[in-house]
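Quick check before the chapter quiz. The format below is the same one you will see on the exam, so make sure you can read both the input and the output lines.
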Amino acid sequence: MKPLVGSFAAVSIAFAASAADTTLHSFKKQQLEKHYWSEGAMFGDLNRDGKPDAVFGPYWWEGPAFT
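Here is the expected output.
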């Protein structure tokens, strides 16, 4: 019986914790290139300047200039 009560308590806490996040996210569509190269883009600090850079197909853009 104790494992059942412990499992129920853990599941209840997990549901309560996940219900607390009600932040709505919004996104802005941004076209980086007029030609289609790939379905998505990747972001990371490629040149180690502390700002995110964008990689799309065979190209990459230094951030934050692409915004």
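If your answer matched, good. The longest strand covers residues 53-56.
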